[in-house]
Amino acid sequence: MRQIITVATMKGGSGKSTLASCLAVHWHLTGRLPTIIDADPQRSIARLALRERALGGVPVVEDATNDAWKTAQNLAASGRPIIIDTPGFRSQATLACIAAADFLLVPVKASPLDVDRMLDTLNSLIDGAGGKRPNFRCILTQTIRDSVIAKQIRAELIEAGFPVLENEMVNRVAYAEAGLWGATPSLISWKGPAAREIAAIASEMDGIVGIKQAA
Ligand SMILES: Nc1ncnc2c1ncn2[C@@H]1O[C@H](COP(=O)(O)OP(=O)(O)O)[C@@H](O)[C@H]1O
Ligand SMILES: [Mg+2]
């Protein structure tokens, strides 16, 4: 069975690369052996992997061509989970990576200003790949604790037919700080709040797609 998880949104700055790298490191530390495909020409994850902590040794394959999805399929044949980080725009490469995904994760930054536009564009992202709708979930990112904004956006997404993970990625400086060393919070403090948040997100995804154990 293959397991390709694509992380995509319409917008840059939604937390795609952060989430993709955090999930990959979490799975790596828990004994699954994920590979990240960096399909973004900005190379955020490839650059993280060049820093001191090198994402704890998670392999990163760079492919910002329209064939990134094929690279993903070839690597997935090994039976290991593949996480694809896509560019922040609706490119051919992104749509192909969505079409090839077993699961699509769509980070939504909890900003109240552009919800309407976001709902419009979400549909074209998710259906733009043609064929069947991918198995997908939205996830709220950079949320502020106890603010009404995230609750409101969650309600609007669900109302519009977009399922949302229960767990959120809270706005925490720990994510950016870990990145300074090419790490994620799971590598810095396994029991810290950000690492536990990532573990909760990963576990919720497990319940949906059953991320494959390394053979
Ligand atoms: N949960 C979070 N809390 C705080 N800062 C975050 C969080 N997620 C992402 N960031 C920061 O927001 C910026 C954009 O995140 P990034 O993952 O690069 O987004 P994208 O890949 O969608 O463009 C980065 O500076 C990152 O460190
Ligand atoms: Mg990115």
Q: What does this protein look like?
A:
It is a single chain. The longest helix is centred in the last third of the chain and has 17 residues, at 193-209. This protein is α/β, with parallel strands linked by helices and 215 residues long. The chain has one domain: Rossmann fold (3-Layer(aba) Sandwich), CATH 3.40.50. Strands 3-2-4-1-5-6-7 form a seven-stranded parallel β-sheet, sandwiched between helices. It has helices at residues 16-29, 44-48, 68-76, 92-99, 115-127, 148-159, 173-180, 185-188, 193-209, and strands at residues 4-7, 35-38, 60-62, 82-85, 103-109, 136-143, 169-170. The chain is built from nine helices and seven strands, in the order E-H-E-H-E-H-E-H-E-H-E-H-E-H-H-H. It binds adenosine-5'-diphosphate and magnesium ion (MG). Magnesium ion binds next to helix 1. Residues 16-17, 40, 44, 85 line the site of magnesium ion.
Topology:
Elements: E1 4-7, H1 16-29, E2 35-38, H2 44-48, E3 60-62, H3 68-76, E4 82-85, H4 92-99, E5 103-109, H5 115-127, E6 136-143, H6 148-159, E7 169-170, H7 173-180, H8 185-188, H9 193-209
Parallel strand pairs: 1-4, 1-5, 2-3, 2-4, 5-6, 6-7
Provide a brief overview of the structure.
The protein is α/β, with parallel strands linked by helices and 215 residues long. It has nine helices and seven strands; from the N terminus they run E-H-E-H-E-H-E-H-E-H-E-H-E-H-H-H.
